[in-house]
Amino acid sequence: MSFLQLFIIALVIHSHNAMGSSFQPYILAEKNSNLDEKSVQDQLKHAGFEVLGTTYPAKGYTTVTFSHPDLKKEAAKAVVPLGAVLRASLVQTKAGTEVSYCSPHWWAYATRLAGSSSDKLARKLADTFGNESSFGCAKGRTESKLRNFNYAMGMPRVSDVDVLSTFDSQLEAILALNQNIKSSPHMDIVYSLDIDKKTRLIGVHLKDGKGSDETVIGVADALSNPKQGGLYGPYEIYIQNGKVMAPRGRFRIAVAFPDLSMSTFMKIVAAPGAILDAFKSVADKKAIAVK
Signal peptide location in the record (predicted)? Predict the structure, then answer.
């Protein structure tokens, strides 16, 4: 076989691997781990990640949110900055503490980041926590399918966002949203991350109602093994040049739980609307007098 033939075969194999690799949303690090919340945070910091906050979305669940400078750089260039934050989950099961984390590939591609740092970050997380298996989407999705992700025909994509309100400046929007959320009995701020000077990403824990984290997780994890619910939230709101926006619930829930059947989704059919109503209430300019 000639050198040219060998070169063509190698090129075809490389192209197939690059375009045809299949990804799942989550990585199981260990089913029975001795890690706790603090050790997860410490190990993330040691690996070069920025720990943003911790929340307890449902009984037995702990979610640690984190970012990385490379993710922030990619998010600053993206239309929607959701992929700047990843999550690690500790879930108490009968077998012990189940530790898992978000796949950098899935969340970069599904939120349309460049994804140039995904390989590096995936290796860092695997070296830090392990990589026992991938889960969350049995058939997996290729990069091209993730970049155009929607659950079904007519369902929203990542670029189909809800505009909640518009303020005169970025600072005014930040002050108003912070004050409104802190005054709300229905949600808490888990983290605030400035992507750049014009964009702030805020992660919130929805505490009650038909769109609460606990409600969505309860449905998603009813038959899930490993557990994936601890990797769903915090749900994102972002402020860009004074405009307050959020991903649509029918996208955000579906991209987190792509294998849920339509009948299962119908159990939380009211969640997207409830989430939007909750967000509108804290983004409403009339809710407070901004000083």
Answer: 1-20
